[in-house]
Amino acid sequence: MRKMVMVGVVAATLGLSACGSSASINDTVASLGSASTVQVHLTATASGPGVTGAAQAILKQVSLDVHYATTNGSPVTDAGNTINSEMIVHYGSAAVLDLRAINQNFYIEFDLTSLSSVPGLGVPAQDLASAQLVLGGRWFELPYSLVKSYAKKFATSPSQAKIAQEKSIGNKVLNAIARLIDTTHATTLASGGYTETGTLASVVKALLPTLDSVTHMTVPAPKHLKGTYTLTLNTSGTTATGASVVITAPNGTQGNASVGLHATIGHDQVTVTAPTGATVITAALIKQLSSLAGG
Known about the structure:
alpha+beta
């Protein structure tokens, strides 16, 4: 779950780089995690030709909250394993899914009642009601030992060399984007913060050297690529309070369509704790449920 917060933080990171800061993306993420708590509220938008009214209606209702709180008061970026996290998926005001990671154990709670109002979901209301009776309104605990045993059974752990390689590729991509943003003109916002707009073609051009090094071949640059991105960082003093990235591009011959990701960032004293009375999921319980489902 720790990577989830980076979704929101990276948007702020890109915006901070856009202000002309010489700090790298990693340095900026570290500064945003300098407190013992971090909260990121994420929403998405879509508009323009090809975007249905139903899709827009769903996006208006869906949001994601990610909370981090260290257990020893240390900064988030220095916490290591001494950090608790929580991810909450909202539909309207209802928390459809609440997932917490506490001491490497996972806790999950469902509330499926609000899903009956999702346009085009395709799940009968009776089925949602039945699922809610079984799963809704109660906490389940997935112990780390159980998760680890199933991971060993069904997944192959990557080698340290493979992990290092993937990390190196990720860093190269982020550094390429950071260099692009550093060289793109940014405008200061009167309310605090910065905004900049660049072309999608420039993003592809910035990433090509990295793609060439990864694939060991020359990746041809796409021709006639149209579209723009707009990055915005909102600040209060020197503290990032929000960020957004909006991509606009032609949708066939109908005109331009836009999609956006918007983040609000906070450092309030929000605690993340293990719920009481959780039903512990065991291998025996999973086996029992599987046999019931199989008839």
